Amino acid sequence: MAAEAEQQQHQLLSTAVHDTMPGKYVRPESQRPRLDLVVSDARIPVVDLASPDRAAVVSAVGDACRTHGFFQVVNHGIDAALIMSVMEVGREFFRLPAEEKAKLYSDDPAKKIRLSTSFNVRKETVHNWRDYLRLHCYPLDQFVPDWPSNPPSFKEIIGTYCTEVRELGFRLYEAISESLGLEGGYMRETLGEQEQHMAVNYYPQCPEPELTYGLPAHTDPNALTILLMDDQVAGLQVLNDGKWIAVNPQPGALVINIGDQLQALSNGKYRSVWHRAVVNSDRERMSVASFLCPCNSVELGPAKKLITDDSPAVYRNYTYDEYYKKFWSRNLDQEHCLELFRT
């Protein structure tokens, strides 16, 4: 048992300082991030959710979903002090002693609460430069007892944040639905009693960032992702018009990412954006991604109102359970999983 715990400690990047790049993290030449080609000063859509002009908010959300597949929101209603606490308690967790963290380690993707590394350690041939704590968050009272008890404030801070993020997600669904010309409640009702989970991501300093990824290019299989970024260190990049653009942290903003299911429900009008995380050599970086996921058994597909003679259904109907299994059985950077569900 002790040997197993020791092996788990060695799996995690956050248990040591790395002066040289271990071979299992080095990408083949053709798959490297080519950081010199990234556009560093692109205009990223920002939506002010406190604007009194509701029509303007809905229009801005629709434009961003269509052109970029993501946007930043400001004045979103989640308290700045809570956001700071979430990042701080996340850092505290990853600074715990190795043997404390090893208790939570698992490489089983089906496990609802686990500390792991890379993306899917069992399947992949090259690893990604990240450790992450995966937490299921809804219903909270069902999952919180199994969350880490150390740091002592972890459960309370993260639990409060999860509740606030869920409410924000539902407000965004309303704006997204309206921007498509659907009833405000359409997305929320169609997606059913939604699951919610979270990844607290930790990207340590990396000796050679140009050889690896924190996470390679992928789209999110869920409906909506709300990302809290480190406001000191950039790392998120999104694909826009064939170029990778850096998403520079804006104080107090959250990044909203359209997932595969909203692309399907919008009949392809809105885009689930390809995005990736890169790492750097002088700073560690944290991010907290919250995922709203459709109920497993709910039937998904293009909204009937968006299917016309001029724009027939792009995707067939399917359950989220079917989609998610397909997504996890592939490599992260293969073709868009939605391609497998085209009509």
UniProtKB/TrEMBL annotation:
Domain Fe2OG dioxygenase: 194-294
Superkingdom of origin: Eukaryota
PANTHER family cross-referenced by the UniProt entry: OXOGLUTARATE/IRON-DEPENDENT DIOXYGENASE
GO biological process: defense response to oomycetes
Annotated coiled-coil segments of the chain: none
PROSITE patterns to which the protein is assigned, alphabetical: FE2OG_OXY
Cofactor(s) listed in the protein's UniProt record: L-ascorbate
Alphabetized Pfam families for the sequence: 2OG-FeII_Oxy (PF03171), DIOX_N (PF14226)
InterPro entries documented for this protein: DIOX_N, IPNS-like_FE2OG_OXY, IPNS-like_sf, Oxoglu/Fe-dep_dioxygenase_dom, Plant_2OG-oxidoreductases
One annotated GO molecular function: dioxygenase activity
Alphabetic keyword roster: Dioxygenase, Iron, Metal-binding, Oxidoreductase
Region described as Disordered: 1-27
Protein name, UniProt field: Fe2OG dioxygenase domain-containing protein
Family membership noted in the UniProt record: Belongs to the iron/ascorbate-dependent oxidoreductase family.
